[in-house]
Amino acid sequence: MVTATSSLSFPGSSRSFAPLGVGTWAWGDKSTWGMGGYDTGISEATIAEAFDASLEAGVTLFDTAEVYGDGESERIIGRLLKGDPARRERALIATKFMPAPWKLNVRTALRSALEASLERLGVDRVDLYQLHGPVSLRSHSALADALAEVVEAKLCDAVGVSNYSIGEMGSIHAQLAARGVPLSSNQIEYSLLRRRPETTGLIEACRRLGVVPLAYSPIGQGRLTGKYSAANPPPKERTFSAHPMEQVDRITAELARIGEPHDRTPAQVSLAWLIAKGAVPIPGAKNAEQASQNAGALGWSLTPEELEVLDGLALSGQRTISQRIWQHG
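Now predict its structure.
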């Protein structure tokens, strides 16, 4: 079982990390998050502070993608690594390939995309390379060939998927195993506002196959921090876990109650719940304060009774048309 003091590693990699990471979608993605747009509290200077505060707190896994800001998230991380070689020694970098349906020659497309990501990051390999979603028209056999090739070329240490269902994950796991390569991770939207990966059996399937579940949007794009409420809703652009805030308010009130004797915030309790479930949450951090707050999920654990209370309040999640296409996990 994963605990808040566990040390993990991706199958295929010898590097260990704490059961908490940093999602970097907001780093450089002006069209979605805005640097100087509606989220005015983020800049490259505050990102550098968040990066260093995360490392200082023992949070070393940073997750990015080629599509975040059209590569700008990777470029920002590359500049941070170049500016301080010690950062590269400590940081584990994960990025993703967008397997768009029109990329029929997936082996060539994936390797070219990874090489471009490496150039933006300024490194010769990444710790984890992931398929961004289950949207490719190519077979799992072809995708496994492409992933195995970049592992054999030592361009990455481990490979994973994102938003894959139980069946899809099992299929590509088997195809990779036939090539001597483990499937290391499945990145999914998972939180108290989207418990579906657990109730469908996906988290148990990850455990059975030795796949590390990475949980994105683990605090519901800020909804579980207590910052927002029915009277003060989050920005309309934040569409993940967009439940009526009256429902969310009941959960955040219980998170605050449970967190008080532990001297923990609602967000820290919600992240600790995910860690107890065996997932590695990857919340965003736009400054040092947020990074330090996220790290407060480590070093302590919820009691079985507290977990049971939160299980009873957790929402299954929403199933919009776009989510049916994109999020199978």
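The longest helix spans residues 245-262.
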